[in-house]
């Protein structure tokens, strides 16, 4: 086919620029918003998703991990005695106060677990070893929170609820969804840092034996334990995510912004392609007079839309990668998984093709007799 | 043999009730093969409405329209594009070329509609352009062409799909007299030498000499007794032996309907159109001669080339 679609698109540079601007705007806005959503989603459930536990025992009706309520740690023995349980550990996640060198206090979340357990440990460790947490008063913090915690590196000291805390290791990229940084320590230290009694725990992490059906184990434990809920890791992760993203409205705000970006893209592209179609209406009328079917003409318009989509996507995704990279320096957690990038291409093409339907509707109604009018 | 165009009792009414307007009123008309019919009348007489109906672009309110024996009034909307594509070529007053495509690509577009693509289509398109004297302007955009050149590209595009019917709406209205003559000569050759039925809507008396018959229309009616022969001109209607065709045997070789003699055209044109030279087969001798490509200047220059072409051919044979 002669390059009518391409020529119509590139013929008017100003209109092409407007079209591409609309597509780029939509791509960047959608990618950034969805990237924020993915970032929020992963951050809110990071502790649960990286716990390596099959089941979580939580206090009754706890809606998300930050809302844990202490319960008797004796339930740990009941759990361990249940057939099908390979490993079970007490686990603490609780807010506390971190006092810096300069006396300023910051809110932190204490995360405490037995350092010898295979569950609930820090990940992405870039300095120190997990075994270093066996020592009293030892903590791991994340590099992202150095400025906030007044820490410069391994060996620095601080205070948590009047008790000494020494940084023995560092992680990279473990963000908290709240403003309170995670501070990893052993279970014994955590009881003190979190102001809990020795007979209390916040959660129990459970690993099933190989070959055991997790759901059956969950039901078995639920039947044996009172005053607590037994949830699979996925269930607790979903609950936590749902609370932060939808009950607080944060997720909805992000998704609404993404939808807005999509709408803007559709409107801008529809307007410019429609404008182009109107400018070339006589040509489409001539094509009809020459014997072109409606499908042939639709193909030209769709091709125009698809080319604009691909070029706009290429520019938009490049800009998005830059935005994501730069925003990370500022602390924003925008994640751009490859699936989002690839999916965005499909969405961009769909957006532009949908926008082209306005023009198709117009072309369908062309009166071919217009070719005889001057 | 079926007549290319046959119109019986065609009426076209626009609007209804108080705003009803009868654009055509019981029109009867036939156009023969190899005939140039001039449709003349004042503005608002119904010429454009009639040619729109002949071109299957507009449906009559009542009556019968047959194109090559096919009753098109009974066809559905989705079947009419096929009729236009296979049987009808249009030439417009405003040329209606695609401004973002080159001259060659404009012709290729017509071939593309018929499913002909790739290098072969490009060669054929170039061949058709060469036949209208615009081979060297294959890569030129319409904005770089004169009015006469644009109309010649339009003619090449119209004949590329090998239609049996050519409908020309005021083809010379936007042209100077020299360019207009060139265009009319091409249309006449299409009819006389290649058996096309050519209908020319015009109100330009200068084209009378190129028509075989004049049909006058007024207020939507064919004036009785108006189907008169066109005035005699200095050049008699060429017979089948006349080889002075600007389209040469290119179209005759492609068309099974034609009965023309082969006409020498440049070797290159033959190759570009991918057609075999019929002359060798017919005469057993090599009388195909390379002629220089026609100039692509304005009408006067092209007409001088046409006369030179005819003179050379006569001397050769």
Provide an overview of this structure.
The complex is a heterodimer of chains A (374) and B (317). Chain A has helices spanning 4-11, 13-44, 46-49, 75-80, 146-149, 187-193, 214-224, 233-247, 250-279, 281-290, 294-329, 338-364; strands spanning 55-59, 71-72, 85-99, 105-112, 125-127, 138-142, 157-160, 163-171, 181-185, 200-201, 203-208, 228-232. Chain A is α+β, with helices and mostly antiparallel strands. Chain A folds into two domains: 4-43 and 249-372, no CATH class; 61-226, no CATH class. In chain A, the strands form two sheets. In chain A, strands 1, 3, 4, 5, 6, 7, 8, 9, 11 and 12 form a ten-stranded mixed sheet that branches. A two-stranded antiparallel sheet of chain A has the order 2-10. In chain A, α2 packs antiparallel against α9, α2 (13-44) crosses α11 and α2 (13-44) packs across α12. The mean pLDDT of chain A is 90. Chain B has 317 residues and is an alpha/beta fold. Chain B has a single domain, classed as Rossmann fold, CATH 3.40.50.300. Chain B has helices at residues 47-54, 80-87, 103-113, 118-131, 147-160, 177-192, 248-254, 267-273, 278-283, 299-316, and strands spanning 5-14, 21-31, 36-40, 62-67, 70-71, 88-91, 165-169, 197-202, 213-218, 221-222, 228-229. In chain B, strands 3, 6, 7, 8, 9, 10 and 11 form a seven-stranded mixed sheet that branches. A four-stranded antiparallel sheet of chain B has the order 2-1-4-5, with helices on one face. In chain B, a hairpin with a 2-residue loop joins β9 (213-218) and β10 (221-222). The longest helix of chain B is centred in the C-terminal third of the chain and has 18 residues, at 299-316. Residues 232-246, 248-267, 269-302 and 308-317 of chain B have low confidence and may be disordered. The chains are: A alpha+beta (374), B alpha/beta (317). Chain A binds chain B through residues 1-4, 7-8, 11, 282-283, 286-293, 296, 368-369, 371-372, 374, and chain B through 48, 51-52, 55, 57-58, 78, 81-86, 88, 90, 92-94, 96, 98-101, 105-106, 108-110, 112-113, 117, 157, 161, 169.
